[in-house]
Design brief:
Strand content: 5-15%
Shape: globular
Radius of gyration: 18 Å
Strand order of the largest sheet: 1-7-6-5-2-3-4
CATH class of the largest domain: Alpha Beta
CATH superfamily of the largest domain: Uncharacterised protein PF01937, DUF89, domain 3
Number of domains: 2
CATH topology of the largest domain: Rossmann fold
Helix content: 40-55%
Oligomer: single chain
Largest sheet: 7 strands, mixed
Length: about 280
């Protein structure tokens, strides 16, 4: 997905929010915005928004002197997600269609996105998504693809979302006897999932965890590790979580299913849905 002019104000908002998390020094916060302003003219509109996001957060880390400005907030929501895990797993187990409910739970976790919103009423949002109709619903195609593969790739998005993904992955591995490779970011970026987050949420108990090689808020194939690239190239089914992965992978010719909540008007327009809609979309 390309960058739109509407993305530019969001770059400044995101940079300022990250700077405030990294430092209380307003001079440094202002310097972050100044550096973003200098960087923007160098970004072609045919690049993806996460490419600029990657540059923004490098600026924040350098000026604020913090390698992971969102660390405390991530830890807080990881603990909340783990607390909700047993109840949500029970909902999936009791559902008329456990696979569909598992997908809903995984999408519900996608609301924990500090690149878009740092103030979330998590339990209320979850309940809404578990009852909400899908705007795009390629469920039959997903079930067919799942039936015809023994191994699938799941590309993570946000850190606390991992606990919700685990519920879907447990269903796929334990009930359907499939192997899952779970892909996280190489380094901290916003509140995106890293290996540390995946281990905290227990993904290692049900899937193999690998890094994509990305240090930005998306999946950049140009930065991919050889291990990730090998899995990606041979995959017969890829689950891609969240907006950043959609922005960077939506033009790839691969069997990808995007699971997300549309939280941005630009992405909603690109998908052909509305802000707030939930999506299970195949390429």
């Amino acid at each position: 997905m390309k960058t739109y002019l509407d993305c530019i104000p969001c770059f400044f908002r995101q940079g300022l929010e990250a700077a405030r998390m990294g430092t209380e020094d307003e001079e440094k916060q202002r310097k972050v915005l100044d550096e973003i302003a200098k960087e923007l003219p160098q970004i072609p509109l045919n690049s993806t928004p996460p490419e600029m996001g990657r540059k923004i957060h490098k600026i924040v880390r350098r000026i604020a002197g913090s390698s992971d400005p969102y660390k405390k907030t991530k830890d807080k929501y990881n603990k909340i997600a783990i607390r909700l895990y047993p109840k949500l797993r029970g909902r999936v187990e009791k559902a008329h269609d456990p696979l569909l409910m598992g997908i809903r739970v995984a999408i519900a976790g996608n609301i924990i996105d500090f690149g878009v919103n740092t103030h979330i009423d998590l339990e209320q949002e979850i309940e809404q998504i578990l009852k909400q109709d899908f705007a795009i619903f390629d469920y039959i195609s997903f079930k067919k693809a799942l039936e015809h593969t023994d191994e699938l790739l799941c590309i993570a998005d946000n850190s606390s979302e991992v606990a919700f993904d685990r519920i879907l992955i447990e269903l796929i591995t334990e009930k359907l006897n499939k192997k899952v490779i779970y892909v996280v970011r190489e380094k901290p970026i916003i509140n995106d999932a890293t290996i540390e987050d995946a281990l905290f949420c227990g993904i290692d108990k049900v899937a193999r965890i690998i890094s994509s090689g990305s240090d930005g808020p998306g999946t950049f194939l140009s930065l991919a590790t050889n291990e990730f690239r090998a899995y990606f190239n041979r995959a017969e089914l890829i689950i891609s979580k969240g907006q950043g992965n959609y922005e960077t992978l939506s033009e790839e010719d691969k069997p990808i299913f995007f699971l997300l909540k549309a939280k941005c008007p630009v992405i909603a327009k690109d998908l052909g849905c509305k802000v707030g809609d939930i999506v299970l979309r195949s390429l």
